[in-house]
């Protein structure tokens, strides 16, 4: 997913800052611009427009992760509070598995599970552009759990970071279900599970616009949580947010 961001960062005029979390967003009414600061209080500059893509930009969950108030103070933007204050999410466990050779008995690069209690999707990660394995005969797959399975595991172990043993158990259970497809899945040479606690938004807050746009402060909030819980939803939301800004700049957006 980060290939899009990498490509954008290479464009002329783009300045990317890595390893920096925006900790505060202040709207300067007299300047009609935004002032941004990092979590440690460092001034990040003033900006005419801001695009926020993190669904916890105004959520109490930001405080739980950082110990700081959310960057966007909804007391100053009451018209946005109902929409972005706390967006519910559906958790997921992801399992990466690597095989010493391609899965010859699987004729597709991705499929869904309709009647599984634990698995929802399987994707051949090696089939994606730029994801070829070394050596070339190896193949990697990513398995996604169902929301119900992930919720059950998280309820049992609590909200804390899963232990190595807990993740190993998840990996075994998900892989066993993968083998139960009857597609002659061999034992992998590598297997690792990861908890994706906020994987998929449970609602879409953007409506027909597919983004949240506040013209008076030139703030666009975009993401899959504005359109649909998918890469496509995130891209469509970003395009709609960009079109709002381009409209203010009197550029034709084509959207």
Explain the overall architecture:
The chain is α+β, with helices and mostly antiparallel strands and 255 residues long. The chain has two domains: 2-88 and 203-248, FAD/NAD(P)-binding domain (3-Layer(bba) Sandwich); 89-200, Polyamine Oxidase, Chain A, domain 2 (Alpha-Beta Complex), CATH 3.90.660. The chain has six helices and eleven strands. The chain has helices at residues 2-9, 60-66, 78-84, 147-157, 164-179, 231-248; strands at 22-28, 33-38, 43-47, 50-52, 89-99, 110-112, 119-124, 139-145, 190-201, 212-214, 219-221. The strands form three sheets. Strands 6-7-8-5-9 form a five-stranded antiparallel β-sheet, with helices on one face. A three-stranded antiparallel β-sheet has the order 1-2-3, with no helix packed on it. Strand 1 (22-28) and strand 2 form a beta hairpin. The longest helix has 18 residues, at 231-248. It is elongated. The two termini are 23 Å apart. 25% of the residues are buried. This is Amine oxidase domain-containing protein.
């Amino acid at each position: 997913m980060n290939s899009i961001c990498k490509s954008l960062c290479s464009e002329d005029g783009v300045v990317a800052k890595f390893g920096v979390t925006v900790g505060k967003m202040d709207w300067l009414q007299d300047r009609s611009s935004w002032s941004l600061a990092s979590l440690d209080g460092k001034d990040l500059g003033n900006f005419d427009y801001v695009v926020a893509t993190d669904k916890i930009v105004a959520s109490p969950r930001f405080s739980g992760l950082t110990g700081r108030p959310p960057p966007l103070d909804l007391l100053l933007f009451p018209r946005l509070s109902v929409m972005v204050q706390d967006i519910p999410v559906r958790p997921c466990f992801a399992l990466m598995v690597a095989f010493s050779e391609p899965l010859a008995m699987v004729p597709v690069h991705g499929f869904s599970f309709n009647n599984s209690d634990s698995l929802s999707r399987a994707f051949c990660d090696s089939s994606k552009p730029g994801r070829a394995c070394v050596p070339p005969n190896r193949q990697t797959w990513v398995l996604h759990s169902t929301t119900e399975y992930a919720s059950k595991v998280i309820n049992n172990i609590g909200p804390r970071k899963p232990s190595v043993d807990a993740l190993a158990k998840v990996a075994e259970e998900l892989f066993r279900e993968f083998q139960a497809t009857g597609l002659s899945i061999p034992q992998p040479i590598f297997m690792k599970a990861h908890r994706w606690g906020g994987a998929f938004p449970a609602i879409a807050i953007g409506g027909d616009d597919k983004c949240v746009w506040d013209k008076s402060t030139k703030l666009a909030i975009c993401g899959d949580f504005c359109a649909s819980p998918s890469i496509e939803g995130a891209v469509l939301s970003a395009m709609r947010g960009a079109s709002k800004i381009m409209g203010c700049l009197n550029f034709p957006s084509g959207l």
